[in-house]
Structure formats: structure tokens, C-alpha cells
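Quick one, C-alpha cells below:
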């Protein structure tokens, strides 16, 4: 029995050692990665200067074209991420400020994402490699379920979020295999149109006061960032388009642009515009709030 207990203790000690070692190795890889996701690009950068930054979900990632702003003299980047909620956008903005980003204007998508105060597990996972290094990330997530396990059990966060930050992603980060996430200054165009187009249904959506949006407003005010909150287009066959009017009853400062593009030829799906629609929409946004600094 004594020998068995000694064997068990040695096995546990070896397991703990391996988990600590793997945690250190994986984290070291992610701390030098800057070409896989917008999160690693952001976390491992500093002292960026932008006239305009875009933040939001796929409805920013696929809808706003930095090139149009850049061609008119405004240094711009699209930090929108598919599946991102306002909770993740708020943390991204905190990290930008912490890394001494100088941002003059923030264009923020606020439409379907204030239907809930929930988070995106897929995007949350991308912050986890930096949990031990970043006090900002620790403070942001200290009250989430399972936080103690994520922080204090070596390698647990990499196992828990294996599909996003596990071995495959770590290896691609190690060999600097690039993705298209950072191409086109962060804009990802949709090139295939769904036909027939299925109408989006917002009948169960209702806007609510949103914690992430409130945090973003506070950060912008504190750091002299001009916040431009906008809604973005959906196809005209969307069920319960009245949802967009309810948004302004809660947040009257939000600019309504859900009708800025209406032709179905500009939509890949009912909820997302194709590249032609994104270009048309970006021009509308630019002309609404900016003037050219130089001739395109």
C-alpha cells in the first residue's frame, strides 16, 4: 500500500510538472504571436495611432471597409470579430488604451448585440492565453464561472478551450502561419450570396441596457475618443424591423443606419451584406461623419 501511494504521488507530481511546463510553453508561443487573430495582434502590439477604429461583431467585420477611410486620409482598422459581443468589444478597447493606442474616433456597432448582456465563449477563449500576464484581463473575468480553475490550474484553460487555443492553434502560432483575419486592414468581405435569401426573424429580440456598451462609453469619455454608435443594415424582409426603433428609445444617441442599404443585391444573407453592399454602406457612414483629408 505504501509503495502504491508513493507511486501515486510521483505520478501526480509528474503530471503537475508536465501541466506547468506545457502552460509555460503554450503561453510563450502566444506571447510572440501577432498574425493569427485580431486579439493576438492587439495584445502583442502597442503605440498604434488610428484616426478611426471599428468595433463590433461580424456586422462590422463584414460591413465596414477601412480602405475607403484610408483613401480619404484617415488611418483606420477594422477590429470587428465574428461572434463578438459588446462584452468582448469593451475588453478590446480597454486593452487598446492600456497599450497606448491613440484613437480619435471609434465607430461601434450597436444593434443585435444589445439584445443580451451575454458573452461569446468563442471570443472569450482568445483572451485566455494572456490571463496570467494581464491584470486587465484577470480583473475583467474574475467573476465568471470557473475563473479559479482557469487561472490557478496549470494548462487547464488550454484544455478547456482546446478547439480555439489548443495544440493546433498553438502550432500554427509557433510557425507564424498567417490567417486572413488581418488582411484588408481587418475587413473580411462576403463573396457568396445565399439565394433564395431567408428572412431574418427578430420577433424574439428586444434591446436592453447593456453593460459592455456602458463600459465603452465610459472608456471613450475618459480617453477623449469620439464614440459613434451605429446600427447596420439588414434586408428589408427582416421580421420585426421595429426592433431598431426600440434601440433609440433606450439609447437615443445611437445613429440608425439599418436602412442605409436596402437592395437585396447588396446582401449575401438577410443579416449580412456582400462586398458591394459593404462598400456602399461604408461610403454612407464616411459621408455622414467625415470629410476627405486628401483626394482619394
Amino acid at each position: 500500500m505504501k509503495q502504491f501511494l508513493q507511486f501515486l504521488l510521483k505520478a501526480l507530481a509528474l503530471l503537475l510538472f508536465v501541466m506547468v511546463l506545457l502552460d509555460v510553453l503554450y503561453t510563450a508561443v502566444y506571447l510572440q504571436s501577432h498574425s493569427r487573430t485580431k486579439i493576438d495582434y492587439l495584445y502583442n502590439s502597442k503605440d498604434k495611432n488610428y484616426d478611426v477604429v471599428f468595433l463590433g461583431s461580424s456586422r462590422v467585420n463584414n460591413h465596414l471597409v477601412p480602405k475607403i477611410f484610408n483613401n480619404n486620409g484617415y488611418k483606420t482598422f477594422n477590429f470587428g470579430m465574428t461572434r463578438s459581443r459588446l462584452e468582448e468589444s469593451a475588453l478590446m478597447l480597454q486593452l487598446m488604451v492600456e497599450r497606448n493606442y491613440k484613437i480619435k474616433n471609434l465607430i461601434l456597432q450597436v444593434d443585435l448585440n444589445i439584445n443580451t448582456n451575454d458573452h461569446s465563449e468563442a471570443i472569450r477563449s482568445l483572451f485566455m492565453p494572456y490571463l496570467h500576464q494581464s491584470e486587465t484581463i484577470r480583473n475583467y473575468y474574475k467573476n465568471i464561472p470557473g475563473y479559479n480553475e482557469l487561472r490557478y490550474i496549470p494548462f487547464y484553460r488550454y484544455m478547456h478551450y482546446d478547439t480555439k487555443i489548443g495544440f493546433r492553434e498553438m502550432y500554427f502560432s509557433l510557425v507564424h502561419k498567417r490567417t486572413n483575419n488581418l488582411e484588408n486592414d481587418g475587413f473580411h468581405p462576403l463573396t457568396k450570396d445565399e439565394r433564395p435569401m431567408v428572412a431574418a426573424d427578430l420577433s424574439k429580440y428586444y434591446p436592453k441596457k447593456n453593460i459592455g456598451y456602458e463600459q465603452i462609453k465610459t472608456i471613450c469619455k475618459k480617453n477623449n475618443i469620439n464614440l459613434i454608435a451605429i446600427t447596420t443594415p439588414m434586408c428589408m424582409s427582416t421580421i420585426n424591423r421595429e426592433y431598431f426603433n426600440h434601440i433609440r428609445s433606450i439609447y437615443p444617441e445611437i445613429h440608425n443606419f439599418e436602412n442605409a442599404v436596402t437592395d437585396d443585391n447588396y446582401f449575401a444573407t438577410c443579416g449580412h451584406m456582400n462586398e458591394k453592399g459593404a462598400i456602399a454602406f461604408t461610403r454612407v457612414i464616411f459621408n455622414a461623419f467625415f470629410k476627405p483629408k486628401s483626394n482619394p
